[in-house]
Amino acid sequence: MIYAQILAGGKGTRMGNVPMPKQFLTLAGKPILIHTVEKFVLESRFDAILVVCPADWLSHTQEIIRKYISDQRVHVVTGGNERNETLMKGINYLQQHYPRHDDDVIITHDAVRPFITQRIINDNIEAALVHPAVDTVVAAIDTIVQGTDDQASAIPVRANMYQGQTPQSFNIKALVTAYQKLTASQKASLSDSCKICLLAGQPVTLVRGESFNFKITTPYDLRVASALVEKRD
């Protein structure tokens, strides 16, 4: 079976003084989250589409999903305290409500990347059906400088560098197995779901993203997103 999980658990602290998490802010007349979910309901191969949100915003998320989305495959689930705990809570929901198969896959995507295309979704599905883990990336344009504070420690070869986006997609059985092997300190340090598989020695396959598949994180990003929607419309 093929599932989608929209990660809407962030608090949006870099968005500044706003009344709600960034995924619920309005973009062209409706919440950013809804723009994202609408892209996923267009894909008929999904058996279920989860929207995983903070517990404090569960009722609000359910309300806006009812208002804008009529697709019965969409379910709202409470997330965890951090990204990968949220991811696993979504998987736990699926394992409790749907039959399990060794070839089940999940396509996970940030709620605040509303410009994802059907091509990117399709490429993730096709790759996840044959590989344990898939990451969506774009080639790095700028030189990457590795360092801490004000000291550079390395400048990697730019041709080998990519910027990570989402979706990140997984064979569910392989992901759960890899996650269960991690120590508590490893789990606490993770900021990227594909690293779960890398730490377990599993390969991660890359698929091509798009520069416009960006994450709305700051007020500037929201202005850019508004301009893109206005130009498209």
TrEMBL record:
- The yes or no answer to whether the keyword Cell wall biogenesis/degradation is present is yes
Query: Which residue positions hold the site described Transition state stabilizer?
Result: R14, K22
**One protein family per Pfam:** IspD
Q: What's the Enzyme Commission number for this chain?
A: 2.7.7.40
Q: Which domain of life is it from?
A: Bacteria
Functional description taken from the UniProt entry: Catalyzes the transfer of the cytidylyl group of CTP to D-ribitol 5-phosphate.
Show the PANTHER family listed in the entry.
Answer: 2-C-METHYL-D-ERYTHRITOL 4-PHOSPHATE CYTIDYLYLTRANSFERASE, CHLOROPLASTIC, RIBITOL-5-PHOSPHATE CYTIDYLYLTRANSFERASE
Question: What is the official name of this protein in its record?
Answer: Ribitol-5-phosphate cytidylyltransferase
